[in-house]
Design brief:
single chain, 62 residues, mainly alpha, elongated
């Protein structure tokens, strides 16, 4: 499996392409949506871990 390493120039090109495609006014909205998505994902993962821990505790109590 080959890992993807991005250098400075690659990141700059990606940022410029995003600016050209979406414009400066849309980027804050995109980042806000991305942040909400990441938070939702983390909350879901934490919820699953909490359920798993609760089940293990119930098993150990019996």
């Amino acid at each position: 499996m080959k890992l993807l390493f991005l250098g400075t120039w690659e990141i700059i090109v990606i940022v410029l392409v995003v600016l050209l495609l979406f414009g400066g006014k849309k980027i804050p909205e995109l980042m806000k949506g991305l942040g909400k998505g990441v938070k939702s994902f983390k909350d879901g993962v934490n919820g699953i871990e909490n359920e798993k821990n609760e089940k293990e505790e119930m098993k150990n109590e019996k």
